[in-house]
Design a protein that fits this description.
Blueprint: H1 15-45, H2 53-73, H3 82-99, H4 106-136
Helix pairs in contact: 1-2, 2-3, 2-4, 3-4
Length: about 140
């Protein structure tokens, strides 16, 4: 079985869709910062066990934020499948966790993989459902 990572007919997103993708990426990035600076200190100060969500929120938001940023800024985004792009983002974030991060946390890597799967599902469903509307933008 051959895995398809390159599209036979590239998807060209209109400028309006790219702007929306950039704004959504920015919203996810800012949301991640807000949660990190408000939720994490609250959880730590009250000694609440939240299944490591306070530590992993930034990783949960990182994959969709990077995916939407890549959609907005990369002209070659439509040449490859959504799964290929998200796989590259997940590999980058896991390598970052091993090589650059001071603390290697397994829960962060799990959060990256879970976020990657959900981002892939949501983008794949959105592209199927709204493909005809994207062409009209």
């Amino acid at each position: 079985m051959k895995i398809q990572y390159k599209l036979t007919k590239p998807i060209v997103l209109p400028a309006k869709a790219r702007v929306y993708s950039f704004l959504l990426s920015l919203f996810l990035f800012v949301g991640s910062l807000v949660i990190s600076y408000t939720y994490r200190p609250y959880i730590y100060s009250h000694h609440i066990y939240d299944l490591h969500l306070a530590d992993s929120f930034s990783d949960l938001f990182a994959v969709p934020a990077m995916a939407f940023f890549q959609i907005a800024t990369n002209k070659d985004f439509g040449k490859y499948t959504i799964g290929f792009h998200i796989m590259i983002i997940c590999i980058f974030l896991i390598l970052y966790e091993f090589l650059i991060s001071a603390i290697t946390d397994v829960y962060d890597m799990i959060a990256v993989i879970v976020s990657g799967v959900f981002t892939w599902l949501i983008l794949r469903l959105a592209m199927k459902k709204y493909k005809h509307k994207l062409e009209k933008l």
